[in-house]
Every structure is written in structure tokens, then in C-alpha cells.
């Protein structure tokens, strides 16, 4: 059974060289599941990993290998082990037994289950989340030093960090593309695995509002 939980965050205003905590706070309402939450989150992660697999591996069976159909030697009298075809998996250059074929690794998960798993993962990671405001203001061109300074005023970037923006921003993406241990996601493309792997999660205020609208039914 899903439970409604509300998490309150203080909004940190990010300015150049300063870190000012605003008095106002924002709330995030989440539908979570406490019983069997590990099972549901595991299903979501497995589904995500499976969707990232190409599934294009392919080998030829003995019927697909081009090696001729003639019997290599007569059945008896040669001292050799009996053999009926060079296409046999026992032969070098023969077909492959039980090899991979193109297939889809996707596992079905209902959209409501996936949203519930995502919200539960967010709730379990609530202590890792920091909400910031005025992050994109003034970033008119790619500037790694400027963007990093704003983030470092809020949190230590030496550990794996997830930055959540409301929508794609070219200047921010280009500024942070070479920064290690920093991943960028958008409010409508969140996934369970990246939330669980991140040690710190920074969410821009307008992205938090969009998360509420997108995933909370």
C-alpha cells in the first residue's frame, strides 16, 4: 500500500562566491511504499539495465555455417572419431551450440510501479538532496569555473554527485561535460539507478516543482 510522505527542504540561493540559505522552504510530496520496497526498486533497476542492453549479439548455428555438407571421411576404418559434417559445433569453424541470438531483454513493469519505485528511491535518498535556486541565472556562455564555483558553494564534488535540472541547458552541459563524478539529469528523465548511486543530489528549485507535477499522481 502506498503512503503519502512530505519532505521539506530549505532552498539555498547560489551566488558568485557565496552560499546564502534563504528562509523559505519547499516541500516535495511523494507516494512511497515501505513493505517490499526493496523488491520494487530492484525490479525498476533491473528493467533499466535491461533496456540499456542492445541485444544484438548473434552467432551462427550449424545450419547457418557455410562449410559444405559432405561427410569428412567414411564412418569406419580410418581410426578417426566418426563425424558427419564440418558444420558440427565440435569442429573449428563449425556452428555454435546454444549461442546468443538477437533478442529483447526488456522486462515489463507498469508505469505506476515505476513511478512508485522512483518516488520511494527519492524518499530513501532524502538526506542526500540539496535544493538550490538561481543556479542558471547569469550563465550565458559555457564557463566551467563559474558553474563549478556555484556547485562547490553548496556541496563537496569529490564524491559522486547528481545534478537535476528542469530542462536541458546547453551552457551548463558544456561547462560540466568534463567534470568527473558529476552526472546531469532532467526532471522528466529521472531514473532509479542514478538516484541510488549518487552520494549527493542537487536539485534546482524549478526542477523540484516539475518533479512533483511529473511523478506524483
UniProtKB/TrEMBL annotation:
- Tell me which UniProt keywords the record has, alphabetically: Plastid, Ribonucleoprotein, Ribosomal protein, RNA-binding, rRNA-binding
Q: Where is the composition biased (Polar residues)?
A: 47-60, 77-90
Annotated Gene Ontology cellular component terms: ribonucleoprotein complex; ribosome
Q: Tell me, which GO biological process terms does this entry list?
A: translation
- Which molecular function GO terms apply here? rRNA binding; structural constituent of ribosome
- InterPro entries from the entry? Ribosomal_uL4 (IPR002136), Ribosomal_uL4-like (IPR013005), Ribosomal_uL4_dom_sf (IPR023574)
Where are the residues of the annotated region Disordered?
45-103
| Entry keyword NAD | no
Assigned protein family: Belongs to the universal ribosomal protein uL4 family.
Q: What is this protein called?
A: Large ribosomal subunit protein uL4c
Q: Which organism is it from?
A: Chroomonas placoidea
